[in-house]
Amino acid sequence: MAEYNEDAYRLARKAYIEHSCPFERALLSRCVACGRSRKLNLAEREAIACGDPAVREHCLTFYQALHENAQFALKINPDAPWPFGKEIRAQCGGVRGLADAMEGTADESTDIAATVLHGLAQFGGSGEFPYSEIMRAVVHYEPRRRRS
């Protein structure tokens, strides 16, 4: 089997995807959904782009706040890269935790953009989100097991 050229893939991805989705891993793992996302196939891989740049900024702010708050909860060194499993726990558990805190649907049908926008309307800003409740959902989220 031929080797993949990761540098060429990254360049093609950067040229093709104008606005990447900060919750791409969560969407690809299908633990949540997003009505503003666009699924793309690039070099035999799936990628997710954001179709609404204005909403993407709100999602990105929430994503960054999730990472900042989850470092302690998931026992992650701030200088180390995030392992895939913990990234999934932060993304999936974080979105579901926010939805649950607002008494919304907290399952694979949870819409990321709608949840973030509803949270902004309810709490006034992503800095005001109930991160103690959200972190409980992050810690308790169990990624689905691989099929053997």
Describe the protein in words.
The protein has one domain. The chain is mostly helical and 148 residues long. Helices cover 52% and strands 8% of the residues. The longest helix has 21 residues. The protein has a two-stranded antiparallel sheet. The chain is globular, with a radius of gyration of 16 Å. The mean pLDDT is 89. Helix 3 packs across helix 5. The protein starts with 5 loop residues before the first helix and ends in an 8-residue tail after the last helix. The chain is built from 6 helices and 2 strands.
Task: Please specify the SSE layout and strand pairing.
Elements: H1 6-16, H2 24-28, E1 37-42, E2 45-50, H3 53-73, H4 84-101, H5 112-123, H6 131-140
Antiparallel strand pairs: 1-2
Helix pairs in contact: 3-5, 3-6, 4-6
Quickly describe the structure.
The protein is mainly alpha-helical and 148 residues long. The chain has helices at 6-16, 24-28, 53-73, 84-101, 112-123, 131-140; strands at residues 37-42, 45-50. The longest helix has 21 residues, at 53-73.
User: What's the helical proportion of residues?
Assistant: 40-55%
The pLDDT mean sits at 89
Q: Order of helices and strands, N to C?
A: HHEEHHHH
List the domain count as a whole number.
1
Tell me the radius of gyration.
16 Å
Uncertain spans = none
Apparent shape: globular
Strand order in the sheet with the most strands: 1-2
The total beta strand count reads 2
Beta-strand percentage range: 5-15%
Largest sheet: 2 strands, antiparallel
Q: Structural class given helices, strands, pairing?
A: mainly alpha
